Here is the input.
Amino acid sequence: MPFTAFRACNLDRPEVRIVGRRVLCAVLFATGPGCVSQPAAGSAGGPGDSSSTSAATSEASGPTTAEGAGSSGETTSDSDVGLTAEGSYTSDDITSTGEPNPTGSGSSTSEPIAVCGNGILEAYGSIPEECDDGNLAAEDGCSDTCALDRRVFVTSVLYMGGDLKSLKQADARCANLADDQGWPDGLQYRAWLSDSTTDARDRFTRGRGRLVMANGLVLATSWSALLAGQLENPFEVTEKSETYQGGVGTGTRPDGTAVPDTEHCEDWATESVLPRGYFGYSDRAMGEWTLAVDPDQPINCNVEFALYCFQDL
Here is the structure.
């Protein structure tokens, strides 16, 4: 096959193409003023043959298709060193010797997966970690899937509806009682309480871990179990690890939504006899822990009740 020689004024750069296991090199030239391509001996055409000159210029500066590169007629641009189909590499993925570069930008960009048990909190991936204590023990507060146990308690202090004033002040009462026990993150406790505009379940970041009472007994294996009424033990342990069996103000149904068509003690801001609120019983199972079946339901807001408190993330 005849070869065409080029006399060029400026050398641009070599281009490397990888085809299968072969490396093809093409040297591209930029033709400046006064530079003329000339055919080598034995090639077709002469200096005045415009078709020969045009073909040579196209071969030097245009896209090149390597023979046996895959599908016929496939071309790549001179800025794309990567190939197609079989084991492609981009220009950042090859070294000067044509070998794959392990640090090239063509490496996978998929989201990393959290590794439970390495002692590093990795809150990403399809199942973000809630904790990582460096081991895979299942019942040490951080499970073997890195789900965090949350502490829960029923208050040892009783309140009338007007004592609470608002949901936020009810949260503050939970936080103060938790902080009094010296628990870490004591201020992250909130009251299980609904009002006319807010469902109790929406006031928490519901995680994957267990809900555990102050004495170590498990209330529910998860938030999902709690909302399904699947309690492992009665919700009757206070922040002091004492037992309280009695009424608890909630305004909340078993699925965590607010009881409809009620005043909620004027959103927990009144001790009046006329407005009423709903309650549960701490020593009852199933859904009655939060909404009791009781002839006094709903009850006057001047009656004292405890609160349920949950640790939030």
Remarks:
- The chain has three domains: 4-93, 110-147, 150-311.
- The two ends are 74 Å apart (CA to CA).
